[in-house]
Design goal:
About 25% of the residues lie in helices and about 25% in strands. By secondary structure, it is of the alpha/beta class. The protein has a single domain, classed as Spore Coat Polysaccharide Biosynthesis Protein SpsA, Chain A (Alpha-Beta Complex).
Length: about 220
């Protein structure tokens, strides 16, 4: 299985920290945020990684190189000055991730999830599997309904999407190159009962503000 790290965002909520440095390169616990993902993916046996780039992306490419020092083979997707959103960013690199299911994670979250667990998580009929977490204070309403390990459309207990998921390329059938969100595709697939999910109770943090960055750095240090 291949993996993608979504690293093209502008990190506007993190300014002024991200005016001269891309968010994935901000340091927590003695290493860049994105490096925590790289080390964890390598430990879980992943080897081929794709990273999409936009805002100050050349800094990420220079910092990580070809991934050899992490035991990885890293390739990059340049999106230009305007990020393509999650859906558009993944769709553009599908030729690098196909043919089978692939893992994707947001660069601006930290979690201690055991990635190897996701290798065989999809059933034949499912198009995606989402890792959800309890709703944090900044997202009290949650994102998706989870019941008996299925992502459902309609009423029910809602949880927050962690930014970690597994997807089949078929989820993106009918899409066209350009900027678009991932959530509508997931909701459409969930409406067809083709998305599984799980609640993860381990360590997780959306590093969306300087305060949360400082909180995580303190925790990891």
């Amino acid at each position: 299985m291949k993996a993608m790290i979504l690293a093209a965002g502008k990190g506007e909520r993190m300014r002024p920290l991200t005016l001269t440095r891309p968010k994935p390169l901000l340091a927590v616990g003695g290493r860049a945020l994105i490096e925590h993902h790289l080390h964890a993916l390598a430990k879980a046996g992943f080897r081929e990684i794709v990273i999409n780039l936009s805002w100050l992306g050349s800094q990420i490419r220079r910092a990580l190189g070809n991934g050899a020092r992490y035991g990885l083979d890293i390739r990059y997707s340049e999106e230009g000055p305007e990020p393509l959103e999650t859906g558009g960013g993944i769709f553009r690199v599908l030729p690098m991730l196909e043919p089978g299911p692939f893992l994707a994670i947001n660069a601006d979250v930290w979690m201690d999830y055991p990635y190897a667990r996701l290798r065989d998580v999809l059933s034949e009929d499912d198009l995606a599997h989402l890792v959800l977490v309890d709703n944090p204070g900044h997202n009290p309403a949650g994102d998706f309904v989870l019941a008996e390990n299925r992502i459902l459309e309609g009423p029910g207990e809602r949880f927050t999407f962690s930014g970690l998921g597994v997807y089949r390329p078929e989820l993106f059938e009918g899409c066209r190159d350009g900027r678009f969100k991932l959530a509508p595709l997931l909701r459409a697939a969930a409406g067809q009962n083709r998305v599984s999910g799980e609640r993860y109770a381990g360590g997780w943090l959306d590093v969306g503000t300087p305060e949360r960055l400082a909180e995580l750095d303190k925790r990891l240090s």
